Structure formats: C-alpha cells, structure tokens
Amino acid sequence: MPPNRPAQTCSLHPAYARLLYVQLRERGVDADAVLAEAGLRWAELASDPRELDLETFERLILATQRRLNCPWLGLELGAHGQVSVHGAVGHAAISSGSLRQLLQTIAHYGQLRSDTFAFAYLERSESNASAILNVNERIALGPVRQFMVEAVFATLMRVLETAVGNMFADMSVDLPFMEPAWSDQYRRFGIGHIRFGSNHLAFHFPAELLNLHCLTADSNSYELARRECDRALADGALAPFSQRVKELLHTQEGGAGGLPELALVAQQLHVSPRTLMRKLKLEGSSYQSLLDANRKDQAIWHLRHSSESVELIAERLGYQDTSNFSRTFRRWCGVSPSEFRKGNTT
Asked: Which of 127, 142, 242, 313 is an S-S bond match for 285, by CB 3.0 to 4.6 Å?
C-alpha cells in the first residue's frame, strides 16, 4: 500500500546528487546550471558530507529529468553507481559471507543511506521456503516516486551482482507502480520474474540461493564496515520503536501464516522480545495495538483495491476463523467486510 501519512522530514546521502551530476556531465549537459536550479553548487556538494533534504533532492531530480528526457533515469542512476559510493553500508554488504548475510545487512543498515525508505528482511520456513527483502516508502514521494523506487531497485541489483554475480533467474521482484512504457529497460538485470502494480518494492529469493557464497566476501572488511555502521546508528537519532514496528508491519503483508509474531519483529529490530515490549510500553504503545491497527489498515486496503475473498483476506491477516474477522471488522468500521466492499470498491 502506498504511504498515506503526514509529511515528515527525510533525507538522502549527497552521493546520489553527485551521481546525478556525473550523469549530466557524461551526456554533455551543463551540470552546474542544473544544480543551480535546485539551489546547489558543485563545490559544496562535493565536499559537504551533510545529507540533502528530500525537497532539495526532488528539485534536482525534476531539473535533471527535464534536461535529459530519460524517463528511466532512476534505473540509470542506480545501475551505474559504484558500490563504493555507498560508504560503509556498501562495503559491509559486499564483504558479507553469504547472500543471506548481505540481505540482513542491507535491512539493518540501509537507513544510513536514506531514511526515506524502510528496509526489512523476512525468511519464510513454509513448504515453499523463501526470503523477502521489503523496501517500503516512509513518506509520500510525490512526483519523484517512480524515480526514487527505480533508483533503489537498480542500486540493490548492482550490489547483488557485485557480490554474487548474475544469479537472478530464479528470483522475482515486485514494483509498486504500473508497468511503464520503458519496461524493456528492466531486462538488463536478468531477473526471472518482474511484477508491476504491487504494494511496495520487494525482492523475493528462493531458499536455495540464500547460502550462496559472496564472491567479494571478506570477514575482516565486513567487521570493520559493520562497526562503522553501528557507530553511525548510535550517533543518529533512530525513530521511536513504535514507528519502526509500524513500518515493519507495513512492509510485511501477511501470507498464509498471517502477520509476523512479536519475536520475529524483535529479531529484525535487533532486540529481544522483552526489550521490545518494554520500549513500546515506555512509548505508550504495545505490539498488539500496533498489530491490530495494521490489520485494520490492510483489511480496508484489500477490500477496496483487490478482488480477494473475505476468507482469503482474513487468512492473510492471521484470522483462522472468518467469522471472528468479520466481527472484528464490524467493530472497527461499523459494517461487515462485505458491506464495506460494496460501498468502497475502487
């Protein structure tokens, strides 16, 4: 589901603006004039480590798109950026020992490069075992949404290819917009299945790929990069636990087993279940209240935007008894799921 939240301050690492500058110069465009349109100067951009606010970056993206007339510019930006431009996060990712560790590293430290997105890694141990890296927008991105999502997609594909080679024929990717006219540009990444029109960006990996040894694995380099990332996390002001839990639940739409249990969410936040419960209580919240609010949001979204049966929606949300789901939904909205759908289908 696309985010529908109050505006909040998010930022991006200046490396992304520098990559856009390089793209402009390589194509013979007056890159300094484009920076000026966004209120930037190269001398400051090249040396100032401070992150850019989203509004400034949006102006730069739109000015660049006007000059280049390249609607898939986000793919170009992500595909041509060297992993080294992503600092300690990039180094930790490619020096991971396995694909599983790489994905876990991105999920844990990805916020250091852009707090505009929330990253979450989830493994499923069902009969069809698999892993998912979910990437969810924390705020509404407006006119640059597709550019931003495509840039993140292509950046992650570049990191994956650097670490494990082109091993993507068995993986699939969900993209949160309708198929664009330039969808052929996605073929360059060698992905087995690409699905458009999803709720959020998601990378799906079969279980047999997770133990792939990274070609660039280096335990010493990983440990050094990880420590640097941990210091950066400690220095920064992390979002409240209640907000982080909301974002994790938002990216992990329930499957046959329903939404994730407290222990799994605590694991992804790198705390114990007891610590997570205590942190939420201090913030005046609880896991159950956040879970119920997420179930309500997801139920409303599916009833409005999908043709799935009420029974399947109930199962997605962890209700074994459809009648229990219907009673709960009536308490939320004052009508049954079927009545709500009749009056709100889009």
From this structure: 242
